[in-house]
Design brief:
heterodimer, A: alpha/beta, Rossmann fold, 2 domains, 3-stranded antiparallel beta sheet, 7 helices, 10 strands, 28% strand, elongated, B: alpha+beta, Heat Shock Protein 90, 5-stranded mixed beta sheet, two-stranded antiparallel ribbon, 7 strands, globular
Chain lengths: 195, 207
């Protein structure tokens, strides 16, 4: 399955470079390009986009403002000449932050990461009350996990890797969200020693 | 002594202001966008040119962003130097042999940025240009007990003696001044000028 992506960048040459890179990667499918976030909205809404390559400095609304004001399901990969917004962008849970001019290897690395987590969707609700297990959605399936089967969880950039006695599962949620919303308090000790 | 320190502080301040001023003029964001535009106009089949441009951008990025700090991580500085050597290498032909040996580097050390690169810059500037004999630059660096050792050797032409001491004088004098300022009593810089090669050794206590 291909990952559907779009480019949002006001500079034609910058879009051209990204397009060339995307065409080199067989699991990426470039759905469209837009010169600003507003023009990208219909592309995003109509196509169930997996990855957005997003510039920061654009007329009307910049990439950071766009992230702050929109609810997006896609993975965001920043592509910008600014080195200064990385911390803020990661705070907004972008998947990666690439600084122009971008080396293809570095671009590929970001896309590989997007591919790994692209299949995953957000958590389903977990049932807690005294239960000895919880459910999560992973790879489009609902997985039942017993607390005492959980060995540990590893905090990655914006996903969590859960290791049970028999398998490992990647769950697309940041460790912060995971700790605050999904993790029963008594399990916190599993997380803490990994951070 | 008091006055000397004040002078040094003032000098430090002046250099920092100068750098900030230059930075403000350059506008890094516009600069890197322009580099990206050039990158995009280089045909994608011309990977060599594209890679050179990327390398150049990395060098600039390091100088503009990372070097604002008083100290940077030694690993990062060495990464910059590797990039710098690779870039300088491109400007020479195959008659020049560059041996760049990075030996054991202890993790977690900090260093004032852009000190070592002065010596490498000089090596490339003043290396011999024989057509019949070997032209060589040998750079070696390692740390031991948090002390950095760097050795920089380049083959030279006999006649280059005079030029060498004069025009490299500026870079070298600046380096000495910075070392004196930043690493008082914690460094040793020695040069050794022979007939056919030029050698600089730097020992720097990074504790």
């Amino acid at each position: 399955m291909k990952l559907k992506c779009i480019i949002i960048d006001d500079e034609p040459v910058a879009r051209k470079v990204l397009q060339e890179f995307i065409e080199e990667i067989d699991y990426l499918d470039l759905i469209g390009q837009a010169e600003n976030p507003l023009k990208a909205m219909s592309l995003i809404n109509d196509n169930d986009i997996d990855i957005i390559f997003l510039d920061i400095n654009m007329p009307k609304i910049n990439g950071i403002e766009f992230l702050k004001t929109s609810k997006l399901n896609a993975s965001i990969i920043m592509t910008t000449a600014y080195a200064d917004y990385a911390v803020e962008a990661f705070g907004l849970e972008v998947l990666d932050y690439l600084v122009k001019p971008i080396a293809f290897d570095r671009f590929l690395k970001a896309c590989t990461r997007a591919k790994e987590i692209g299949k995953l969707i957000e958590f389903g609700p977990i049932t807690q009350n005294k239960a000895d297990h919880f459910f999560i959605k992973c790879n489009n399936q609902i997985e039942k996990i017993f607390y005492n089967d959980l060995v540990y969880a590893e905090a990655m950039l914006n996903y969590v890797m859960l290791y049970t006695n028999s398998k490992k599962m990647m769950v697309y949620v940041t460790i912060k969200v995971w700790k605050n919303n999904y993790l029963p308090t008594f399990l916190l000790k599993y997380i803490n020693y990994l951070l | 002594m008091q006055t000397q320190q004040q002078l040094e502080l003032l000098e430090k301040e002046r250099v920092k202001n100068e750098l900030d001023y230059l930075k403000a003029q350059i506008n890094p964001h516009a600069l890197f966008n322009s580099l990206n535009t050039i990158y995009g106009h280089i045909d994608k089949s011309n990977q060599v040119a594209r890679n050179i441009l990327l390398q150049f951008s990395e060098l600039l990025r390091y100088q503009l962003y990372d070097c604002g700090a008083e100290k940077v991580s030694l690993e990062k500085e060495i990464g910059y130097i590797e990039n710098y050597v690779a870039f300088q290498r491109l400007r020479k032909d195959e008659r020049l042999i560059v041996a760049f040996q990075i030996e054991d580097i202890e993790m977690g050390l900090q260093i004032a940025p852009l000190l070592l690169v002065v010596l490498i810059e000089n090596a490339f500037k003043f290396v011999s240009n024989f057509s019949e004999k070997e032209n060589k630059i040998i750079i070696k660096t390692f740390t031991k007990k948090k002390v950095l050792h760097g050795s920089f050797i380049n083959t030279k032409e006999v006649l280059q003696n005079v030029i060498n001491t004069n025009s490299s004088g500026i870079g070298l004098a600046n380096l000495k001044r910075r070392l004196e300022l930043l690493y008082t009593n914690k460094y040793e810089l020695t040069t050794n000028i022979e007939n056919d090669f030029y050698e600089t050794n730097l020992i720097l206590d990074l504790t």
